[in-house]
Write a structure and sequence with these properties.
Elements lengths: L2 H8 L17 E7 L4 H12 L4 E8 L8 H12 L4 E5 L5 E5 L5 E7 L11 H19 L6 E4 L4 E2 L16 E5 L2 E4 L4 H23 L13 E4 H6 L10 H9 L4 E4 L5 E4 L10 H11 L6 E3 L2 H17 L8 H11 L8 H11 L1 H11 L3 H11 L2 H16 L1 E3 H4 L4 H6 L3 H12 L7 H5 L1
Length: 449
């Protein structure tokens, strides 16, 4: 039994069983969760689908079981009933799925987990909402009803570029698990919200820049609104995890072990700058916290030295993957890092030792060396073990026990920061915007970067 068949039969959401008589054939499909969104957002995405060829727009209207308000959802139904050239032509027996023709080009599949369908368990939130839509699209791709093998996913606040659906075909690779679009947040009439969002956007780019500088294979954004997933790889990792937040983080790191994750250079997805509490953490809550603090330049960031210690771990992994015998002890690992892999930053042996022991790196190296004599196989095994989740835990370990946070205004003056940002253009451009808008003041080191 293939991974795809097994997933659809045993792990996909039950809604897919009701899609057998869904009419229509499509070139591509787009999945968007909707929670407490207005009609303008659904109209913007519907219009994009209408102008992008034969597209199936899968909208998952949902609410957590802790929220009894359905008025916004009722408004969507009313809006669709009055929208020009839009006609409902199919519905399943319990009315949880409804199919609308938007125009001659595209259609809308409404997955209702707000009124007709049961609300989502609060702890499963947006993860389950994305999974519901993505499972439906995965089934329709497998059935041949949707031609493109990509599960395109975004959020209700996104504005998609004109050539959005064609972008994955520009990547010259046959083993892609997912592609990620570049993104930017749009300015709003509320300057404070726009500036707070820009600060948070910089923190996202700064983290990826740090991973990129450390030569981590996980140097990519984990944002559901900029992601397209190959349906076969989606099935291999059993879909979106049912989580109220960070579902995109966990999914993309699982996907990275099944194929390549590529960040496109274009086109750019535009996201709204907004103060939101729809999720327990992420952009909305972060912006809200920054606005409440009223001190954007004090936004807390990881210490840049964190990524230097991370680079040391990767150097250890690469070196010991090529050795005939494992390190005798932690001191052997540390001795190698002192003698063989200098980097331009003062590394404290006690901090590196603590991180190595926290990770149990010696144990993992011994395991990899005992399982294979091929250095490439060993290194891949170790890289799969030291995945994006362990990388983030390592950064947090360094923060909580040794390095702490740095305020944004201090971070940009640290000597390591320009070197980290130099490897990742989006972070540099975002920093330039912060300076241009006088959110932070420039420094000599920043200007040189």
């Amino acid at each position: 039994m293939s991974a795809l068949t097994k997933y659809l039969q045993h792990y996909a959401e039950p809604e897919i069983e009701q899609l057998k008589d869904l009419p229509g054939r499509f070139q591509q499909g787009l999945v968007v969760p909707f929670y407490r969104e207005d009609n303008a957002n659904i109209e913007r995405l519907a219009t994009h689908c209408e102008t992008s060829g034969k597209t199936l727009f899968v909208a998952v209207i949902n609410r957590p079981d802790s929220d009894n308000d359905t008025t916004w959802c009722q408004s969507i139904y009313q809006y669709l009933s009055q929208r020009p050239n839009t006609q409902q032509i199919w519905q399943n027996a319990n009315k949880t799925l409804a199919y609308f023709e938007l125009s001659n080009a595209s259609s809308l599949l409404l997955v209702d987990r707000c009124i007709a369908g049961l609300p989502l368990p609060a702890k499963q939130g947006v993860g389950l909402a994305r999974k519901l839509g993505a499972d439906c699209l995965c089934y329709l791709i497998a059935k041949g009803q949707v031609a493109q093998p990509w599960i395109f996913t975004t959020d209700a606040d996104a504005t998609l570029p004109r050539d959005y659906f064609n972008a994955p075909s520009t990547v010259a690779s046959t083993r892609l698990a997912a592609v990620l679009y570049p993104f930017a947040h749009t300015s709003t009439l509320d300057t404070a919200v726009s500036q707070a969002t820009l600060c948070y956007e910089f923190s996202l780019h700064y983290y990826v820049a740090g991973l990129h500088w450390a030569k981590s294979p996980y140097a990519f954004h984990t944002i559901g609104s900029i992601t397209a997933i190959n349906f076969l790889n989606y099935a291999k990792v059993r879909g979106f995890p049912k989580r109220a937040a960070a579902e995109d983080f966990y999914l993309l790191h699982k996907l990275s072990k099944t194929g390549g994750i590529v960040t496109l250079s274009k086109p750019t997805v535009l996201l709204q700058s907004r103060n939101s509490d729809r999720a327990p953490f992420g952009t909305g809550p972060a912006v809200k916290a920054l606005l409440e603090s009223n001190k954007l330049e004090e936004m807390l960031c990881y210490h840049p030295a964190s990524f230097y210690y991370l680079a040391k771990i990767y150097q250890c992994i690469h070196y010991w993957s090529t050795q005939e015998s494992p390190p005798a002890d932690t001191n052997a690992l540390l001795k190698y890092t002192e003698q063989k892999s200098k980097i331009d930053c003062e590394i404290e042996p006690k901090i590196l030792t603590a991180l190595i022991e926290k990770l149990q790196l010696k144990k993992q190296i011994c395991r990899a060396l005992s399982q294979s004599t091929n250095s490439q196989v060993r290194e891949k095994s170790l890289m799969d073990w030291f995945d994006g989740f362990r990388v983030l835990k390592s950064i947090h370990f360094l923060r909580d026990n040794f390095l702490g946070f740095l305020p944004l205004k201090t971070l940009i003056r640290e000597p390591q920061t320009p070197k980290i940002l130099s490897t990742y253009k989006p972070a540099r451009l975002c920093l330039e915007k912060l300076i241009q808008q006088n959110i932070i003041s420039s420094s000599t080191d920043t200007k040189r970067s």
